[in-house]
Amino acid sequence: MRHATWNAIEANPFAMRIYQSYRRLPEEVRAPTRWVVTPRWQAACAIVRRTAGNEVLSGPFRGMKLHLSPLSKRQLLGYLLGTQELELFPIIEDIVSRPYSTVINIGVADGYYAIGLARRMPSTPVIGFEGLPEHHEPFWQTARANGVADRITLRGFCTAPDLRDALDRAGPRPFILCDIEGGEKELLDNSAIPELNRADILVETHDGLVRGCTERLVQRFSATHDIKSVYARPRTMADFPARELPFLARWMSGTAVELMNERRTGVQEWLFMTPRRTGETDKQ
Question: pLDDT confidence of 74, banded at 50, 70, 90?
Answer without folding.
Answer: low
